[in-house]
């Protein structure tokens, strides 16, 4: 009894697994450090096996040096695609950071080794809420679907267009700041008006020392009105998922 191995099939699945692994390590929600590394590796291999009929159909086994180059290209492609998704969903964390800054919570920032975030309460809270919404709403399946469709736009061994990718990254960074302001905007306006009101009160009656009431007042307003921002997070995450899919599918 002889056992024959299809080396071309194994090489194609290995290259697909490299792209999947690089993507999962960087892109949310899979990049969360609470997920064990072996689970991420098993997920990457499982996804590579799932797309094997697509990636092995027209795959031609290259030489040794070309195969190493293909490994590098797949690693770079997965990292770029994962970074695009990471930028899109960073808008939620950035919105939490703006609320921490204007609400007076920024002084209590700390580093969370699980999420790899150095921020205060709302930064970490919004990040965890976004991850929970990605899993509960099934949006992570859309992200995986976009990753699998990337093998049609970028076949195995194909070089990614770094110029187009850099342009997409710059565009997404500008959208990140805009989305963060849109998410936290209503609460930021109220906190700004509270500062203006306290300033006017201090000018009218300096003896009151109105700014001594500023911190507890802004903390109260932040905790009370942040419920409105949090209630809008499901629709925000849904829109960001669509943006992430467009970014992943737009890479050539």
TrEMBL record:
TM region positions: 6-27, 67-92, 125-144, 176-198, 210-233
Similarity-based family: Belongs to the FliR/MopE/SpaR family.
Presence of the UniProt keyword Cell membrane in the record: yes
Compartment annotation: Cell membrane
Name listed for the protein in its UniProt record: Flagellar biosynthetic protein FliR
Pfam families: Bac_export_1 (PF01311)
Keywords: Cell membrane, Cell projection, Cilium, Flagellum, Membrane, Transmembrane, Transmembrane helix
Superkingdom, taxonomy of origin: Bacteria
Membrane topology qualifier: Multi-pass membrane protein
GO biological-process terms attached to the record: protein targeting
InterPro entries in the cross-refs: T3SS_IM_R
Keyword Transmembrane helix carried by entry: yes
GO cellular component: plasma membrane
Organism, as annotated: Homoserinimonas hongtaonis
């Amino acid at each position: 009894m002889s056992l024959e191995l299809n080396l071309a099939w194994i090489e194609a699945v290995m290259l697909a697994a490299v792209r999947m692994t690089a993507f999962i390590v960087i892109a949310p929600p899979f990049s969360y450090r609470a997920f064990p590394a072996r689970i991420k590796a098993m997920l990457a291999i499982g996804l590579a096996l799932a797309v094997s009929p697509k990636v092995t159909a027209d795959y031609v086994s290259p030489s040794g040096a070309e195969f190493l180059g293909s490994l590098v290209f797949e690693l770079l492609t997965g990292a770029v695609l994962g970074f695009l998704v990471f930028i899109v969903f960073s808008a939620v964390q950035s919105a939490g950071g703006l609320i921490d800054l204007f609400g007076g919570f920024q002084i209590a920032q700390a580093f969370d080794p699980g999420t790899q975030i150095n921020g205060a309460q709302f930064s970490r809270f919004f990040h965890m809420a976004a991850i929970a919404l990605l899993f509960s709403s099934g949006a992570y399946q859309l992200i995986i679907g976009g990753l699998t469709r990337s093998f049609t736009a970028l076949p195995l061994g194909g070089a990614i267009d770094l110029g187009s990718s850099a342009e997409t990254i710059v565009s997404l960074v500008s959208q990140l700041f805009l989305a963060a302001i849109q998410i936290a905007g209503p609460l930021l306006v109220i906190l700004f008006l509270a500062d203006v009101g306290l300033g006017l009160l201090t000018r009218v009656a300096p003896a009151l020392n109105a700014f001594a009431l500023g911190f507890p007042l802004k903390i109260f307003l932040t905790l009370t009105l942040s419920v409105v921002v949090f209630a809008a997070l499901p629709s925000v995450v849904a829109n960001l998922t669509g943006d992430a899919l467009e970014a992943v599918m737009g890479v050539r």
